[in-house]
């Protein structure tokens, strides 16, 4: 990938976009679900964002998707947006936004484990194994018993939902990478958002969110959070990401996987008054170092093996974020 066709200022602005915007979406979710039920909020976000991305991709010349494309996109949307993002939205009712970002940042751990257990069973190298061990220690410090690193303040149920949500996202990541989907990444993402949004509506109905939802009680903070998620989180952030895919290396682009949690923790502390204890700080440092180690080691290993083509690398990178 060559950066000569883009100025340093343009690349820096695009990185700032995915670093800050995607890092801030956890806080936006917190405000959005204050007066909007989580699954209905997510459904609204993804149906609107998905429709806009789909329409824009088709306008730019993307081919009409087939029935098989739609089937695969809905399955991917189920794992990624219902299972992965849905877990984030539900858990933020009981887990602070910064800690949510830390817990879902363990996604690379699941990716490594899945690659390890499924054919052709790619055994992680030493650096990745060290990262896995560090990550496990960090999670224990963060959500373990109160006598592990100080008083705990993370809901065990919320933490479990987030960890399982990351697993769902990892499964969806591999499905999206291997399934037959449109060549256009923007079209594919729009279709997955539409499929995931439809599934979120169904789950919201089963959870009786419609009967408990009072549109007159929706606060301006929740509306602002939802609009921010649609315009910035889903549209501007993703557009910046797609643009960077052709400008920088996958390893450099993948740095957002461990920058976003830092941004989320700091914003939750500075804006929402979320507690940033010594225990949280230590756990955050351990988890983020583990994610950075695994991400960089996996990127280097893939370059050495040259076993994945660029399209598959691009697809997997796209689904490293659950916001």
Shape verdict: globular
Strand tally, please?
0
Low-confidence stretches: 306-320
Task: Please tell me the total number of domains.
Answer: 1
Structural class: mainly alpha
Mean pLDDT: 87
Strand content: under 5%
C-alpha end-to-end distance:
26 Å
Helix content: over 70%
SSE topology string: HHHHHHHHHHHHHH
- The total of helices stands at 14
Give the C-alpha Rg: 19 Å
The profile of the biggest β sheet is:
none
Brief synopsis:
This protein has one domain (8-318). Helix content is 74%, strand content 0%.
Descriptive labels:
323 residues, mainly alpha, globular
Description:
By secondary structure, the chain is mostly helical. The chain has one domain. 74% of the residues lie in helices and 0% in strands. The chain is built from 14 helices and no strands. The protein has helices at residues 8-32, 38-59, 67-91, 97-104, 107-117, 126-143, 156-178, 185-206, 209-212, 220-245, 250-253, 256-270, 278-305, 310-318. The longest helix has 28 residues, at 278-305. It is globular, with a radius of gyration of 19 Å. Mean pLDDT is 87; it is low at 306-320.
Helices, strands, pairings?
Layout: H1 8-32, H2 38-59, H3 67-91, H4 97-104, H5 107-117, H6 126-143, H7 156-178, H8 185-206, H9 209-212, H10 220-245, H11 250-253, H12 256-270, H13 278-305, H14 310-318
């Amino acid at each position: 990938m060559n950066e000569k066709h883009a100025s340093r200022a343009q690349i820096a602005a695009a990185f700032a976009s995915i670093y800050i915007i995607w890092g801030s979406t956890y806080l936006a979710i917190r405000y959005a679900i204050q007066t909007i039920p989580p699954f209905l909020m997510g459904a609204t976000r993804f149906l609107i964002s998905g429709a806009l991305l789909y329409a824009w991709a088709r306008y730019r010349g993307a081919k009409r998707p087939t029935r098989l494309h739609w089937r695969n996109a809905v399955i991917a949307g189920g794992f990624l947006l219902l299972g992965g993002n849905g877990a984030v939205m539900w858990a933020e009712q009981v887990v602070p936004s910064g800690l949510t970002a830390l817990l879902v940042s363990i996604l690379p751990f699941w990716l490594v484990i899945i690659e390890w257990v499924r054919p052709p069973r790619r055994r992680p190298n030493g650096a990745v194994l060290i990262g896995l061990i560090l990550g496990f220690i960090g999670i224990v410090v963060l959500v373990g018993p109160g006598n592990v690193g100080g008083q705990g303040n993370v809901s065990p149920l919320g933490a479990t939902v987030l960890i399982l949500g990351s697993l769902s996202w990892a499964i969806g990541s591999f499905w999206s990478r291997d399934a037959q989907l449109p060549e256009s990444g923007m079209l594919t993402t729009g279709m997955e958002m539409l499929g995931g949004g439809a599934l979120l509506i169904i789950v919201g109905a089963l959870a009786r969110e419609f009967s408990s939802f009072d549109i007159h009680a929706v606060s301006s903070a929740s509306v602002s959070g939802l609009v921010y998620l649609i315009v910035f989180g889903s549209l501007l952030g993703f557009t910046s990401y797609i643009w960077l895919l052709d400008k920088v290396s996958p390893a450099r682009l993948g740095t957002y996987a461990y920058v976003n949690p830092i941004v989320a923790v700091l914003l939750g502390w500075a804006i929402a008054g979320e507690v940033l204890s010594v225990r949280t700080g230590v756990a955050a440092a351990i988890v983020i170092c583990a994610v950075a180690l695994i991400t960089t080691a996996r990127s280097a290993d893939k370059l050495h093996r040259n076993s994945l083509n660029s399209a598959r690398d691009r697809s997997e990178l796209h689904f490293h974020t659950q916001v």
